[in-house]
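Need C-alpha coordinates for this chain, all 496 residues.
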Amino acid sequence: MAAPQRVFRTAQIRVIESRAIAAVPPPPLMAWAGAAAAREARAMLSAGARVLVLAGAGNNGGDALVAARHLRDSWLDVRVVLLGDAAGMPADAAAAFAAWQVSGGTTLTALPPAFDADLLIDGLFGIGLARPVTGVFAESIERMNAATIPVLALDVPSGIDADTGRVLGCAVRATTTITFIALKPGLLTLDGPDHAGRVVIDSLGLGANDADVPAGIVLDASVVRRAIAPRTANSHKGSYGTVGIIGGAPGMVGAVLLAARAALHAGAGKVLAGMLAEDAPSVDPAQPELMLRTVREASAAGTVLVVGPGLGQSEAARRVLQASLEVTVPLVLDADALNLIAGDALLASQVARRFAPTVITPHPAEAARLLQETTTEIQADRIDAAVRLAQRLNALVVLKGAGSICAAANGMWCINTSGNPGLASAGTGDVLAGLVGALIAQGAAPFDALQAAVHVHGLAADRLRKTLGGPLGITASALVTAIPLVLNEIVTGGAG
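Here are the C-alpha coordinates for all 496 residues:
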Protein backbone atom coordinates (compact mmCIF):
# COMPACT_ATOMS: atom_id res chain seq x y z
CA MET A 1 0.00 0.00 0.00
CA ALA A 2 1.41 3.38 -1.00
CA ALA A 3 2.22 5.82 1.78
CA PRO A 4 -0.23 8.74 2.16
CA GLN A 5 0.72 11.91 0.30
CA ARG A 6 2.57 14.30 2.59
CA VAL A 7 1.89 18.04 2.81
CA PHE A 8 4.60 20.58 3.65
CA ARG A 9 4.43 24.14 4.86
CA THR A 10 6.73 26.71 3.30
CA ALA A 11 9.43 26.44 5.98
CA GLN A 12 9.73 22.70 5.38
CA ILE A 13 9.79 23.14 1.59
CA ARG A 14 12.70 25.55 2.08
CA VAL A 15 14.55 22.93 4.13
CA ILE A 16 14.10 20.35 1.37
CA GLU A 17 15.27 22.88 -1.24
CA SER A 18 18.31 23.90 0.79
CA ARG A 19 19.36 20.28 1.26
CA ALA A 20 19.05 19.69 -2.47
CA ILE A 21 21.10 22.70 -3.55
CA ALA A 22 23.82 21.83 -1.04
CA ALA A 23 24.76 18.95 -3.33
CA VAL A 24 27.78 19.28 -5.60
CA PRO A 25 26.86 20.12 -8.25
CA PRO A 26 23.46 21.50 -7.18
CA PRO A 27 20.49 20.28 -9.22
CA PRO A 28 18.98 22.80 -11.70
CA LEU A 29 15.65 23.05 -9.88
CA MET A 30 14.36 26.00 -11.92
CA ALA A 31 15.18 24.24 -15.17
CA TRP A 32 13.36 21.13 -13.98
CA ALA A 33 10.35 23.11 -12.73
CA GLY A 34 10.08 25.05 -15.98
CA ALA A 35 10.31 21.89 -18.05
CA ALA A 36 7.60 20.23 -15.92
CA ALA A 37 5.36 23.27 -16.33
CA ALA A 38 5.87 23.21 -20.09
CA ARG A 39 4.89 19.53 -20.22
CA GLU A 40 1.71 20.26 -18.32
CA ALA A 41 0.94 23.24 -20.56
CA ARG A 42 1.41 21.17 -23.71
CA ALA A 43 -1.05 18.60 -22.35
CA MET A 44 -3.62 21.40 -22.09
CA LEU A 45 -3.05 22.69 -25.65
CA SER A 46 -3.45 21.69 -29.27
CA ALA A 47 -0.93 22.29 -32.05
CA GLY A 48 -0.37 25.91 -32.98
CA ALA A 49 -1.88 27.22 -29.75
CA ARG A 50 -1.13 30.67 -28.37
CA VAL A 51 0.24 31.06 -24.86
CA LEU A 52 0.52 34.20 -22.74
CA VAL A 53 2.88 33.90 -19.78
CA LEU A 54 2.61 36.34 -16.87
CA ALA A 55 5.92 36.29 -15.03
CA GLY A 56 6.93 38.11 -11.90
CA ALA A 57 10.48 39.14 -11.06
CA GLY A 58 11.08 36.33 -8.56
CA ASN A 59 11.86 32.64 -8.84
CA ASN A 60 8.26 31.80 -9.73
CA GLY A 61 8.68 34.11 -12.70
CA GLY A 62 11.93 32.31 -13.52
CA ASP A 63 10.06 28.98 -13.64
CA ALA A 64 7.54 30.59 -15.99
CA LEU A 65 10.27 31.95 -18.26
CA VAL A 66 11.87 28.51 -18.57
CA ALA A 67 8.45 27.07 -19.41
CA ALA A 68 7.91 29.80 -22.01
CA ARG A 69 11.19 28.93 -23.74
CA HIS A 70 10.32 25.21 -23.88
CA LEU A 71 6.89 25.99 -25.29
CA ARG A 72 8.37 28.30 -27.92
CA ASP A 73 10.80 25.54 -28.87
CA SER A 74 7.70 23.37 -29.45
CA TRP A 75 6.59 25.85 -32.14
CA LEU A 76 3.86 27.40 -30.05
CA ASP A 77 3.08 31.12 -30.22
CA VAL A 78 4.36 32.33 -26.84
CA ARG A 79 4.56 35.82 -25.39
CA VAL A 80 5.77 36.83 -21.95
CA VAL A 81 4.50 39.72 -19.87
CA LEU A 82 7.19 40.53 -17.31
CA LEU A 83 5.76 42.42 -14.36
CA GLY A 84 8.34 43.76 -11.95
CA ASP A 85 11.92 44.94 -12.05
CA ALA A 86 14.08 42.65 -14.18
CA ALA A 87 17.19 44.23 -12.66
CA GLY A 88 16.25 42.88 -9.23
CA MET A 89 15.72 39.27 -10.27
CA PRO A 90 17.44 36.46 -8.31
CA ALA A 91 20.34 34.89 -10.17
CA ASP A 92 18.51 31.83 -11.52
CA ALA A 93 15.51 33.87 -12.62
CA ALA A 94 17.77 36.45 -14.27
CA ALA A 95 19.51 33.65 -16.16
CA ALA A 96 16.13 32.29 -17.29
CA PHE A 97 15.13 35.76 -18.52
CA ALA A 98 18.40 36.15 -20.40
CA ALA A 99 17.92 32.75 -22.05
CA TRP A 100 14.40 33.77 -23.08
CA GLN A 101 15.71 36.95 -24.65
CA VAL A 102 18.56 35.16 -26.44
CA SER A 103 16.05 32.69 -27.90
CA GLY A 104 14.24 35.60 -29.54
CA GLY A 105 11.18 35.43 -27.33
CA THR A 106 8.73 38.32 -27.19
CA THR A 107 8.61 40.22 -23.89
CA LEU A 108 5.92 42.74 -22.97
CA THR A 109 6.16 45.07 -19.99
CA ALA A 110 2.41 45.52 -19.63
CA LEU A 111 -0.68 43.45 -20.23
CA PRO A 112 -2.01 43.57 -23.79
CA PRO A 113 -5.43 45.19 -24.25
CA ALA A 114 -6.94 41.74 -24.86
CA PHE A 115 -5.80 38.24 -23.96
CA ASP A 116 -5.39 36.82 -27.45
CA ALA A 117 -4.35 33.40 -26.18
CA ASP A 118 -5.50 29.82 -25.67
CA LEU A 119 -3.72 29.43 -22.32
CA LEU A 120 -2.56 31.80 -19.60
CA ILE A 121 0.37 30.76 -17.42
CA ASP A 122 0.45 32.32 -13.97
CA GLY A 123 4.05 32.81 -12.84
CA LEU A 124 3.58 36.00 -10.83
CA PHE A 125 4.09 34.86 -7.22
CA GLY A 126 5.17 31.60 -5.61
CA ILE A 127 5.12 30.23 -2.08
CA GLY A 128 6.99 33.18 -0.60
CA LEU A 129 4.14 35.69 -0.94
CA ALA A 130 3.25 37.09 2.49
CA ARG A 131 1.55 40.41 1.74
CA PRO A 132 -1.65 41.46 -0.03
CA VAL A 133 -1.44 41.72 -3.80
CA THR A 134 -1.90 45.31 -5.01
CA GLY A 135 -1.34 47.57 -8.00
CA VAL A 136 -0.58 46.18 -11.43
CA PHE A 137 -0.37 42.66 -10.03
CA ALA A 138 -3.89 42.86 -8.61
CA GLU A 139 -5.13 44.32 -11.89
CA SER A 140 -3.47 41.48 -13.82
CA ILE A 141 -5.03 38.84 -11.58
CA GLU A 142 -8.49 40.37 -11.87
CA ARG A 143 -8.17 40.41 -15.66
CA MET A 144 -7.00 36.79 -15.71
CA ASN A 145 -9.99 35.77 -13.62
CA ALA A 146 -12.38 37.67 -15.89
CA ALA A 147 -11.05 35.97 -19.02
CA THR A 148 -12.65 32.77 -20.32
CA ILE A 149 -9.26 31.17 -20.97
CA PRO A 150 -7.72 28.18 -19.15
CA VAL A 151 -5.08 29.15 -16.60
CA LEU A 152 -2.08 27.08 -15.51
CA ALA A 153 -0.69 28.28 -12.17
CA LEU A 154 2.89 27.46 -11.19
CA ASP A 155 3.42 26.11 -7.65
CA VAL A 156 0.44 27.98 -6.14
CA PRO A 157 -2.12 30.32 -7.71
CA SER A 158 -0.71 33.83 -7.27
CA GLY A 159 -2.32 35.52 -4.30
CA ILE A 160 -2.96 32.32 -2.32
CA ASP A 161 -1.01 31.89 0.92
CA ALA A 162 0.75 28.55 0.43
CA ASP A 163 0.54 27.68 4.13
CA THR A 164 -3.06 28.62 4.89
CA GLY A 165 -5.11 28.93 1.71
CA ARG A 166 -5.94 32.56 2.49
CA VAL A 167 -6.53 34.97 -0.37
CA LEU A 168 -4.00 37.77 0.03
CA GLY A 169 -6.02 40.62 -1.43
CA CYS A 170 -6.92 38.80 -4.64
CA ALA A 171 -5.87 35.49 -6.16
CA VAL A 172 -5.75 33.71 -9.49
CA ARG A 173 -8.49 31.16 -10.18
CA ALA A 174 -6.57 28.47 -12.02
CA THR A 175 -7.83 25.64 -14.16
CA THR A 176 -4.79 23.57 -13.18
CA THR A 177 -2.00 24.13 -10.66
CA ILE A 178 1.29 22.30 -11.06
CA THR A 179 2.97 22.40 -7.68
CA PHE A 180 6.66 21.62 -7.27
CA ILE A 181 8.50 19.36 -4.79
CA ALA A 182 5.38 18.52 -2.72
CA LEU A 183 1.85 19.52 -1.84
CA LYS A 184 1.28 22.71 0.11
CA PRO A 185 -1.63 23.02 2.57
CA GLY A 186 -2.81 26.26 0.99
CA LEU A 187 -3.88 24.28 -2.08
CA LEU A 188 -6.13 22.02 -0.01
CA THR A 189 -7.90 24.10 2.62
CA LEU A 190 -9.89 27.34 3.06
CA ASP A 191 -9.95 29.23 -0.28
CA GLY A 192 -7.22 27.13 -1.89
CA PRO A 193 -9.46 24.48 -3.48
CA ASP A 194 -11.60 27.17 -5.13
CA HIS A 195 -8.50 28.73 -6.73
CA ALA A 196 -6.17 25.81 -7.47
CA GLY A 197 -8.40 23.79 -9.79
CA ARG A 198 -6.89 20.42 -10.63
CA VAL A 199 -3.63 19.97 -8.69
CA VAL A 200 -0.66 18.17 -10.27
CA ILE A 201 2.49 17.41 -8.25
CA ASP A 202 5.97 17.28 -9.75
CA SER A 203 8.51 16.28 -7.11
CA LEU A 204 11.46 17.49 -9.23
CA GLY A 205 13.08 14.23 -8.21
CA LEU A 206 13.68 15.39 -4.63
CA GLY A 207 11.74 12.60 -2.90
CA ALA A 208 9.99 14.92 -0.46
CA ASN A 209 7.51 12.20 0.52
CA ASP A 210 10.42 10.30 2.12
CA ALA A 211 12.21 13.31 3.62
CA ASP A 212 12.79 13.40 7.40
CA VAL A 213 11.06 16.78 7.64
CA PRO A 214 7.90 17.45 9.69
CA ALA A 215 4.78 17.34 7.54
CA GLY A 216 1.10 16.63 7.51
CA ILE A 217 -0.62 14.07 5.34
CA VAL A 218 -3.59 13.96 2.99
CA LEU A 219 -6.24 11.55 4.22
CA ASP A 220 -7.02 8.66 1.90
CA ALA A 221 -8.63 5.22 2.01
CA SER A 222 -5.63 3.74 3.83
CA VAL A 223 -6.72 5.35 7.10
CA VAL A 224 -10.14 3.75 6.73
CA ARG A 225 -8.59 0.32 6.23
CA ARG A 226 -6.40 0.95 9.25
CA ALA A 227 -9.45 1.84 11.35
CA ILE A 228 -11.74 -1.00 10.28
CA ALA A 229 -10.78 -4.57 9.49
CA PRO A 230 -12.98 -6.92 7.43
CA ARG A 231 -15.44 -8.72 9.69
CA THR A 232 -15.00 -12.33 10.65
CA ALA A 233 -17.84 -14.84 10.35
CA ASN A 234 -17.50 -15.71 14.04
CA SER A 235 -18.71 -12.40 15.48
CA HIS A 236 -21.83 -10.89 17.05
CA LYS A 237 -23.22 -7.47 17.91
CA GLY A 238 -21.11 -7.33 21.02
CA SER A 239 -18.02 -7.58 18.84
CA TYR A 240 -18.69 -4.12 17.42
CA GLY A 241 -19.27 -2.07 20.52
CA THR A 242 -22.02 0.10 21.93
CA VAL A 243 -22.32 3.81 21.23
CA GLY A 244 -24.10 6.04 23.73
CA ILE A 245 -25.31 9.36 22.30
CA ILE A 246 -26.53 12.19 24.52
CA GLY A 247 -28.38 15.31 23.36
CA GLY A 248 -31.84 16.09 22.07
CA ALA A 249 -33.00 19.05 24.11
CA PRO A 250 -36.57 20.27 23.41
CA GLY A 251 -36.91 21.12 19.73
CA MET A 252 -33.61 19.45 18.83
CA VAL A 253 -34.42 15.74 19.04
CA GLY A 254 -33.57 15.33 15.35
CA ALA A 255 -29.90 16.04 15.97
CA VAL A 256 -29.39 13.12 18.34
CA LEU A 257 -31.42 10.82 16.07
CA LEU A 258 -29.21 11.72 13.10
CA ALA A 259 -26.05 11.00 15.10
CA ALA A 260 -27.50 7.73 16.36
CA ARG A 261 -28.60 6.59 12.90
CA ALA A 262 -25.15 7.42 11.55
CA ALA A 263 -23.50 5.33 14.27
CA LEU A 264 -25.76 2.38 13.47
CA HIS A 265 -25.20 2.63 9.70
CA ALA A 266 -21.44 2.89 10.29
CA GLY A 267 -21.41 -0.55 11.90
CA ALA A 268 -21.76 -0.10 15.65
CA GLY A 269 -23.20 -3.21 17.30
CA LYS A 270 -25.70 -1.26 19.41
CA VAL A 271 -26.64 2.40 19.70
CA LEU A 272 -28.36 3.95 22.72
CA ALA A 273 -29.70 7.49 22.43
CA GLY A 274 -30.51 9.50 25.54
CA MET A 275 -32.46 12.73 25.12
CA LEU A 276 -33.09 15.65 27.46
CA ALA A 277 -36.50 16.52 26.01
CA GLU A 278 -39.34 15.31 28.23
CA ASP A 279 -41.48 14.60 25.19
CA ALA A 280 -38.72 12.66 23.40
CA PRO A 281 -39.99 9.67 21.41
CA SER A 282 -39.65 6.17 22.82
CA VAL A 283 -38.93 4.70 19.39
CA ASP A 284 -37.50 5.99 16.13
CA PRO A 285 -39.97 4.83 13.46
CA ALA A 286 -37.43 5.42 10.71
CA GLN A 287 -34.77 3.42 12.56
CA PRO A 288 -36.44 1.11 15.09
CA GLU A 289 -33.13 -0.67 15.73
CA LEU A 290 -32.08 2.31 17.86
CA MET A 291 -32.59 2.03 21.59
CA LEU A 292 -34.02 5.27 22.97
CA ARG A 293 -33.23 5.40 26.64
CA THR A 294 -32.81 7.86 29.48
CA VAL A 295 -29.74 10.04 29.54
CA ARG A 296 -28.42 8.07 32.51
CA GLU A 297 -28.84 4.73 30.72
CA ALA A 298 -27.26 5.92 27.49
CA SER A 299 -24.35 7.46 29.38
CA ALA A 300 -23.54 4.28 31.26
CA ALA A 301 -23.84 1.69 28.50
CA GLY A 302 -21.39 2.76 25.86
CA THR A 303 -18.02 1.57 24.64
CA VAL A 304 -17.81 5.21 23.59
CA LEU A 305 -19.96 8.23 24.46
CA VAL A 306 -20.98 11.01 22.07
CA VAL A 307 -22.27 14.19 23.73
CA GLY A 308 -23.57 17.35 22.14
CA PRO A 309 -25.95 16.86 19.19
CA GLY A 310 -28.96 19.04 20.04
CA LEU A 311 -27.83 19.21 23.66
CA GLY A 312 -28.71 22.87 24.19
CA GLN A 313 -27.04 25.15 26.70
CA SER A 314 -29.38 24.91 29.65
CA GLU A 315 -28.28 24.23 33.20
CA ALA A 316 -29.53 20.67 32.78
CA ALA A 317 -27.36 20.31 29.68
CA ARG A 318 -24.37 21.61 31.62
CA ARG A 319 -24.91 19.04 34.38
CA VAL A 320 -25.17 16.24 31.83
CA LEU A 321 -21.94 17.37 30.16
CA GLN A 322 -20.10 17.68 33.46
CA ALA A 323 -21.09 14.13 34.39
CA SER A 324 -20.10 12.88 30.93
CA LEU A 325 -16.61 14.27 31.34
CA GLU A 326 -16.11 11.84 34.22
CA VAL A 327 -16.66 8.70 32.13
CA THR A 328 -13.66 6.46 31.60
CA VAL A 329 -14.42 5.56 27.98
CA PRO A 330 -13.52 7.60 24.87
CA LEU A 331 -15.67 10.70 24.56
CA VAL A 332 -16.75 12.57 21.41
CA LEU A 333 -17.84 16.17 22.01
CA ASP A 334 -19.79 18.11 19.40
CA ALA A 335 -22.03 21.14 18.94
CA ASP A 336 -23.48 22.53 22.18
CA ALA A 337 -21.10 20.48 24.31
CA LEU A 338 -18.34 22.60 22.78
CA ASN A 339 -20.26 25.83 23.30
CA LEU A 340 -20.77 24.99 26.97
CA ILE A 341 -17.06 24.25 27.38
CA ALA A 342 -16.13 27.50 25.64
CA GLY A 343 -18.13 29.47 28.17
CA ASP A 344 -16.97 27.64 31.29
CA ALA A 345 -13.31 27.48 32.31
CA LEU A 346 -14.03 24.71 34.83
CA LEU A 347 -15.50 22.48 32.14
CA ALA A 348 -12.57 23.23 29.84
CA SER A 349 -10.14 22.31 32.61
CA GLN A 350 -12.07 19.10 33.21
CA VAL A 351 -11.75 18.19 29.53
CA ALA A 352 -8.01 18.81 29.55
CA ARG A 353 -7.53 16.60 32.63
CA ARG A 354 -9.29 13.56 31.20
CA PHE A 355 -7.25 10.35 30.97
CA ALA A 356 -9.51 8.62 28.45
CA PRO A 357 -9.34 9.95 24.87
CA THR A 358 -11.42 12.99 23.96
CA VAL A 359 -12.41 13.88 20.41
CA ILE A 360 -13.88 17.28 19.54
CA THR A 361 -15.47 18.27 16.23
CA PRO A 362 -15.80 22.08 16.03
CA HIS A 363 -16.64 24.21 13.06
CA PRO A 364 -14.64 27.46 12.82
CA ALA A 365 -17.03 29.53 14.96
CA GLU A 366 -17.01 26.91 17.72
CA ALA A 367 -13.22 26.71 17.55
CA ALA A 368 -13.07 30.49 17.85
CA ARG A 369 -15.15 30.40 21.01
CA LEU A 370 -13.01 27.63 22.48
CA LEU A 371 -9.79 29.57 21.80
CA GLN A 372 -11.38 32.94 22.68
CA GLU A 373 -10.53 34.32 19.25
CA THR A 374 -12.50 35.48 16.24
CA THR A 375 -13.57 33.18 13.44
CA THR A 376 -11.39 35.25 11.12
CA GLU A 377 -8.35 34.52 13.29
CA ILE A 378 -9.13 30.79 13.24
CA GLN A 379 -9.53 30.74 9.47
CA ALA A 380 -6.32 32.74 8.98
CA ASP A 381 -4.31 29.60 9.84
CA ARG A 382 -6.52 26.55 10.20
CA ILE A 383 -3.67 24.11 10.84
CA ASP A 384 -2.22 26.21 13.63
CA ALA A 385 -5.65 26.72 15.18
CA ALA A 386 -6.45 23.00 15.14
CA VAL A 387 -3.11 22.06 16.72
CA ARG A 388 -3.41 24.76 19.41
CA LEU A 389 -6.92 23.63 20.24
CA ALA A 390 -5.79 20.01 20.51
CA GLN A 391 -3.01 21.04 22.87
CA ARG A 392 -5.20 23.31 25.00
CA LEU A 393 -7.87 20.67 25.58
CA ASN A 394 -5.62 17.58 25.40
CA ALA A 395 -7.93 16.33 22.68
CA LEU A 396 -8.10 15.02 19.15
CA VAL A 397 -9.60 17.70 16.91
CA VAL A 398 -11.24 18.04 13.55
CA LEU A 399 -11.60 21.66 12.49
CA LYS A 400 -14.38 21.32 9.96
CA GLY A 401 -14.66 23.27 6.72
CA ALA A 402 -13.21 23.23 3.22
CA GLY A 403 -10.18 21.00 3.70
CA SER A 404 -11.01 19.83 7.23
CA ILE A 405 -7.97 19.66 9.50
CA CYS A 406 -7.48 16.78 11.94
CA ALA A 407 -4.93 17.41 14.68
CA ALA A 408 -3.54 15.82 17.85
CA ALA A 409 -1.97 17.36 20.93
CA ASN A 410 1.47 16.06 19.88
CA GLY A 411 1.39 18.36 16.84
CA MET A 412 0.38 15.77 14.21
CA TRP A 413 -2.02 17.08 11.58
CA CYS A 414 -3.65 16.03 8.35
CA ILE A 415 -5.97 17.48 5.71
CA ASN A 416 -9.05 15.87 4.24
CA THR A 417 -9.81 16.52 0.59
CA SER A 418 -13.00 14.50 0.21
CA GLY A 419 -16.37 16.22 0.48
CA ASN A 420 -18.10 19.11 -1.24
CA PRO A 421 -20.31 22.14 -0.50
CA GLY A 422 -23.33 19.87 -0.11
CA LEU A 423 -22.09 19.27 3.44
CA ALA A 424 -23.05 22.88 4.24
CA SER A 425 -26.40 21.59 5.42
CA ALA A 426 -28.02 21.22 8.84
CA GLY A 427 -27.34 17.95 10.60
CA THR A 428 -24.25 16.81 8.71
CA GLY A 429 -22.09 17.60 11.74
CA ASP A 430 -24.31 15.38 13.90
CA VAL A 431 -23.78 12.59 11.37
CA LEU A 432 -20.01 13.02 11.63
CA ALA A 433 -20.10 12.83 15.44
CA GLY A 434 -22.05 9.57 15.31
CA LEU A 435 -19.70 8.17 12.67
CA VAL A 436 -16.63 8.91 14.81
CA GLY A 437 -18.26 7.20 17.77
CA ALA A 438 -19.14 4.12 15.72
CA LEU A 439 -15.58 3.61 14.49
CA ILE A 440 -14.16 3.96 18.00
CA ALA A 441 -16.77 1.48 19.26
CA GLN A 442 -15.58 -1.06 16.69
CA GLY A 443 -12.06 -0.90 18.07
CA ALA A 444 -10.29 1.78 16.03
CA ALA A 445 -7.68 3.90 17.79
CA PRO A 446 -9.41 7.25 18.42
CA PHE A 447 -7.18 9.31 16.10
CA ASP A 448 -7.52 6.70 13.36
CA ALA A 449 -11.28 6.70 13.93
CA LEU A 450 -11.46 10.48 13.65
CA GLN A 451 -9.44 10.61 10.45
CA ALA A 452 -11.34 7.72 8.88
CA ALA A 453 -14.70 9.21 9.83
CA VAL A 454 -13.84 12.60 8.37
CA HIS A 455 -12.68 11.01 5.12
CA VAL A 456 -15.69 8.68 4.81
CA HIS A 457 -18.08 11.52 5.67
CA GLY A 458 -16.68 13.48 2.72
CA LEU A 459 -16.72 10.46 0.39
CA ALA A 460 -20.37 9.83 1.23
CA ALA A 461 -21.16 13.41 0.26
CA ASP A 462 -19.19 12.98 -2.97
CA ARG A 463 -21.18 9.85 -3.78
CA LEU A 464 -24.44 11.77 -3.28
CA ARG A 465 -23.15 14.66 -5.38
CA LYS A 466 -22.51 12.27 -8.25
CA THR A 467 -25.96 10.70 -7.87
CA LEU A 468 -27.74 14.07 -7.69
CA GLY A 469 -25.64 15.73 -10.39
CA GLY A 470 -24.41 18.42 -7.98
CA PRO A 471 -24.16 19.41 -4.32
CA LEU A 472 -27.57 21.03 -3.98
CA GLY A 473 -30.04 19.13 -1.84
CA ILE A 474 -27.64 16.79 -0.06
CA THR A 475 -29.23 16.12 3.32
CA ALA A 476 -27.89 14.67 6.53
CA SER A 477 -30.40 11.83 6.31
CA ALA A 478 -29.20 10.89 2.82
CA LEU A 479 -25.62 11.07 4.06
CA VAL A 480 -26.42 8.45 6.71
CA THR A 481 -27.54 5.95 4.07
CA ALA A 482 -24.49 6.61 1.86
CA ILE A 483 -21.99 5.90 4.66
CA PRO A 484 -22.23 2.07 4.67
CA LEU A 485 -21.87 2.00 0.88
CA VAL A 486 -18.59 3.88 1.14
CA LEU A 487 -17.33 1.89 4.12
CA ASN A 488 -18.06 -1.49 2.55
CA GLU A 489 -16.48 -0.47 -0.73
CA ILE A 490 -13.24 0.51 1.00
CA VAL A 491 -13.03 -2.24 3.60
CA THR A 492 -13.74 -5.01 1.09
CA GLY A 493 -11.09 -3.63 -1.26
CA GLY A 494 -13.27 -2.06 -3.91
CA ALA A 495 -11.96 1.51 -3.55
CA GLY A 496 -8.53 3.04 -3.33
